[in-house]
Amino acid sequence: MVELSKLGYIPLRANAGQFWQGQQATLDGQRILTNIKAVKGMPEGTSDIICIMPNGRTAWIECKTATGKQREAQVRFQQMVESFGHQYYIMRCVEDIKQLAE
Q: Where do the domains of the chain lie?
C-alpha cells in the first residue's frame, strides 16, 4: 500500500468476510480482547485493496503469493467488477504495481 501511495493513489484496505472486534485490555502482561463480537466486513470475495486513482479511475486489487489462487468467491467478484467496466488486478509482488500505469 505504501508503493501505491507513493504514486499518488489512495489505497484502501478492504476487510472481507467475518472477523472479531473488541476492547483491548492487559492480563498478566499480555494484550487481550474483551467484549468480543463478530463483525461482518465487505462481502466475501471482495478484493484486498480498493485503489482510488486520478481521472476517475478505481482499481480493485487482489494480493496473492507467487502461487496463490483465487477462491471461487473472488473469481465471481472479479467478474462482477469487470462487468461494470472497472479494473481488477491480481498482484503477486511490488513490481506488479506497474500494471496500474498502463
A: 2-101
* Residue 22 CB partners (closer than 8 Å, separation 6+): 33, 34, 35, 36, 37
Measured CA distances, 54 to 9, 58, 70, 99 (Å): 7, 8, 28, 15
Give dist(CA 15, CA 38) in Å, integer.
13
Q: How distant is the alpha carbon of residue 42 from its chain centre?
A: 10
26-79 pLDDT tens trace = 999 999 989 999 888 888 899 999 999 998 999 999 999 999 999 999 999 999
Angle made by CA atoms 80, 83, 88, in degrees to the nearest 5 = 70
- Total-model pTM: 0.77
Contact call for residues 56 and 87 (beta carbons, < 8 A): no
Residues 6+ apart with CB under 8 A from 83: none
CA distance 9 to 73: 26
Domain 2-101, CATH: 3.40.1350.10
